[in-house]
Amino acid sequence: MSKPIWIKHAAQLATLASEGKGPRSKEAMSELGLIEDGSMWIEEGMIKAVGTTNEFEERYADRVNEAEVVDATDHLVTPGLVDPHTHVVYGGSREREFEMRLEGASYMDIMNAGGGIHATTRMTREALEEELIEQTTLRLDSFLAHGVTTVEGKSGYGMNLETELKQLRVMKKLQEQHAIDLVPTFMGAHAVPAEYKGREDEFVDQLINEMLPVVAEEKLAEFNDVFCEKGVFTPEQTERILDAGKRFGLIPKIHADEIESYGGAELAAKIGSISAEHLLKASDAGIKAMAKAGTIACLLPATALYLREEAAAGRKMIDEGVAVAISTDCNPGSSPTTSMPLVMNLACISMRLTPAEALTAATYNAACAIKREEKVGSLEVGKQADIVLWNVKNYQELQYLFGVNHVKAVWKKGVKVV
Ligand SMILES: N=CN[C@@H](CCC(=O)O)C(=O)O
Ligand SMILES: [Zn+2]
């Protein structure tokens, strides 16, 4: 049995204590449950107590010798960050497209010419399972180094049964092998594969009748996501796919209104999608509908920056009552990054979230977007000891000193991994 850990004298402990209340919106996004000169007691991978160091000196006076003591003087301590939207399992890379976009080509031009998602699909179909495991492990290591302890991952670079299953099985294996918790999403509807060009509805039928049943039968995914975008899947096709997924117990998510305003936010609200992703071009009516339905907005400011597009209206969404989460969108085309700290910085700079809101969006609300709020996303008794010790004194400094990785140490389920 490992020693208990006592993290003491934290300059600031941002607990995000939420008492299971569910996604935070409006003012609740600013409530970080701060404790100054904070302490935490960790045992068997779980958080056993959270409070001030003063309280702990008395409470644990007779156990201090058995514990490993971590002095967090002058350091901020937060929950492990949660990334609720990634495409982390893929083959190959697309640096040439980066150059092409700088030369003037658009994301959709490249995709329609057989590049983009189609290029990664070809490379992922060709890759051996072991190669995908090796490449994805490096990305997950990098996530951990940036303070991220839980990552959602999507399939969607197969778009045939064989490769979709290969991606999902890679995630299952990595969930067993890697310290990070991986949450799997089926995204067979990421694009219409080249071999189905002009026969889009046939592909939707295949997805519903042949892929979804196997994914569900093998319990390889918890969520079902669709790229609802002009020229990809229509709102009607999206609804059919997500409805079918629901019948197999898969929870809907939608890539909505990324490139054009297409009714994606409205659809997410209408069908009870847990979240809608991107939302760069979401309409005002869509934002209002999401607030009313309690749909979480999963915003991806690094993607907007990388595509040189204006970021989503994060400030407005919060003011309208939408619960906002943020994510890297880690993928080989529109956001090849694993840095959630950078994403928090960008959430402030390009979407005008406050530093406190950005931290909530990257922890508790992110956990809610992947239904992990009972285990991670806040520092509360009974939760997993997923904890980050930062080289800054407070949460404002974390967002202010931007573009730098301030991680000093990371514990995953009570084990020091960084
Ligand atoms: N927009 C759709 N899917 C991904 C990008 C995938 C890719 O370009 O490979 C996204 O969320 O940004
Ligand atoms: Zn995505």
Automatic annotation (TrEMBL):
It holds the Pfam family Amidohydro_1. Zn(2+) binds at H85, H87, H255, D329. Its cofactor is Zn(2+); Fe(3+). It is found in: Cytoplasm. N-formimidoyl-L-glutamate binds at Y157, N331, G333. Residues 76-415 form the Amidohydrolase-related domain. Its main location: cytoplasm. Pathway: Amino-acid degradation; L-histidine degradation into L-glutamate; N-formimidoyl-L-glutamate from L-histidine: step 3/3. It catalyses: 4-imidazolone-5-propanoate + H2O = N-formimidoyl-L-glutamate. Gene3D superfamilies: Metal-dependent hydrolases (3.20.20.140), Urease, subunit C, domain 1 (2.30.40.10). The keyword Metal-binding applies. Binds 1 zinc or iron ion per subunit. Its EC number is 3.5.2.7. The keyword Metal-binding applies. Fe(3+) binds at H85, H87, H255, D329. 4-imidazolone-5-propanoate binds at R94, Y157, H190, E258, S334. One of its GO terms (molecular function) is imidazolonepropionase activity. Keywords: Cytoplasm, Histidine metabolism, Hydrolase, Iron, Metal-binding, Zinc. Catalyzes the hydrolytic cleavage of the carbon-nitrogen bond in imidazolone-5-propanoate to yield N-formimidoyl-L-glutamate. It is the third step in the universal histidine degradation pathway. Belongs to the metallo-dependent hydrolases superfamily. HutI family. HAMAP family: HutI. This is Imidazolonepropionase. The gene is hutI.
